[in-house]
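Note on ligand handling. Small-molecule inputs were canonicalized before submission; formal charges were left as drawn, and no protonation-state enumeration was performed. Where a ligand contained multiple stereocentres, the stereochemistry in the source SMILES was retained. For flavin mononucleotide, this procedure yielded the string shown in the input block below.
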Amino acid sequence: MDVYEAVTSRRAVRGFIDRPVPREVLERVLSAAAWAPSGSNLQPWHVYVLTGRPLGELKELAGGRVTARDPWDEREYEMYPPTLKSPYRERRSAFGAERYSALGIAHEDWEARQRAASANWKCFGAPAALFCYIDRGLGRPQWSDLGMYLQTVMLLLRAEGLHSCPQMAWSVYRKTVAEVLSPPDDLILFCGMSIGFEDIAVPYTRTGRALLDETVTFVDD
Ligand SMILES: Cc1cc2nc3c(=O)[nH]c(=O)nc-3n(C[C@H](O)[C@H](O)[C@H](O)COP(=O)(O)O)c2cc1C
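Structure output:
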């Protein structure tokens, strides 16, 4: 698979079959992803990979909190600014509309939207997941290094015939994740990522993208 194909075939997959992901594949992907760039080569990512019983335990504990309507853990970082300005606000609404209409859920059906969102904490059925942490002493440039690293992981997963879904949703249950992983106190959970083979029976609408001239300015003569 060439890089263009990896980039364009990567998408946030929210339905996985329970075919296991071999450990050696995960090791190959994560070894190659370590070549992702980072400012001054800090390599600020701390990754935990879960499969099997520990992942089952995490899904169970998180599912218990969803059922109990447990409040979310207090935030260690804000996922989005409290008010999103244009054009981000419109892009976010368009994404929500696409995501829920693919599942046949009406915008006003809050319960159904919550049910769909709660699949996050079952990792959408994925048999493998990773959790990416960063040291709380590091700043915005290092958080962006994490993004480059995670995208590299997702592209390499495509090369292995696998799909993924990055998930900030896990940060709202970060204490439950910590209960299973016992990370050092100086780490903040950025996101989880579900990993596995796609369940093509789960409906999906391809997200759109802004036109090139909305996000890119060529300066030439
Ligand atoms: C850092 C990050 C966190 C995300 N968190 C979630 C999440 O918690 N749950 C989810 O279903 N999708 C999540 N997504 C997926 C985005 O919604 C998705 O990437 C975006 O809508 C574009 O769609 P595509 O990835 O299918 O091209 C996340 C993506 C990123 C990059």
